[in-house]
Amino acid sequence: MNKENITDSLTEKQAEAFNNIVSSSVSESGTDSLSEPLKNKDEEFDIADFIVKHSTQYSVKKSKAPRIIAIVAVAVIIIGLCVVFALVSGKQQNKNPIFGSWVSEQGIEMEIIDDYITIDGNSRKYIFPEGEENVIAIAIKDEYFKILYKLEKGRLYFVIPSAEGESETIIYERKKEQ
Fold first, then answer.
1. Residue 173 in contact with residue 102, Cβ under 8 Å?
2. Among candidate residues 173, 168, 166, the one with its CA nearest the CA of residue 108
3. 0.70 surpassed by pTM
């Protein structure tokens, strides 16, 4: 088969690549090595070597699976972090800022949790009356005793009214975590 018959059946790029191969083999040996039979076993034509040496990056398809797996893994991690963040921030938003452990200037310890307030070891149920801001109502026997409170700069001020119409203010500071 001669060189002209081969190049007629190829595309323009293929023919150009073939001509480059033929001209390089002719220039190296001084003769047309394609028309000469192979002399020994070391010079046998290896199709795999030929394809690897003459292929371009566009002709060899690379698998996209590792890239897709990496993208999916990153997406799952991001979604997981968003869910965790939403759960944590949701719990913090529902937490009342007066919840926690407090100690007064007189050494009276107080703890406020979801439904109970404990003052010096005595636990009582409490509520926040609807429509009244900064008011906590503590259950004493069958009635609720209302106390005004104010939270300011890490201090909790309780204004406790007396029967005589006067009021007493007790200042609590948030207890340090140990």
1. yes
2. 173
3. no
pLDDT band (50, 70, 90) for residue 162: confident
Q: Comparing C-alpha atoms, which of 157, 152, 150, 151 is closest to residue 171? A: 157
Q: pLDDT for 8-35, tens place per residue? A: 555 666 767 767 776 665 544 455 545 5
Distance CA 104, CA 157 (A): 9
Q: Which residues contact 124 (CB under 8 A, 6 or more apart)?
A: 116, 117, 118, 138, 139, 140
Report how far residue 153's alpha carbon sits from residue 159's, in angstroms, rounded to the nearest whole number: 17
Q: How many CA atoms lie within 13 A of 62 on its CB side?
A: 7
How far, rounded to the nearest angstrom, does the alpha carbon of residue 41 sit from its chain's CA centroid?
A: 60
Domain ranges of the chain: 3-54, 62-95, 100-174
Beta bridge partners of 119: 110, 122
Topology of 100-174 in CATH?
Answer: Lipocalin (2.40.128)
Instruction: Please give the C-alpha separations between residue 122 and each of 11, 101, 138, 140, 178, in angstroms, as whole numbers.
Output: 95, 14, 12, 11, 22
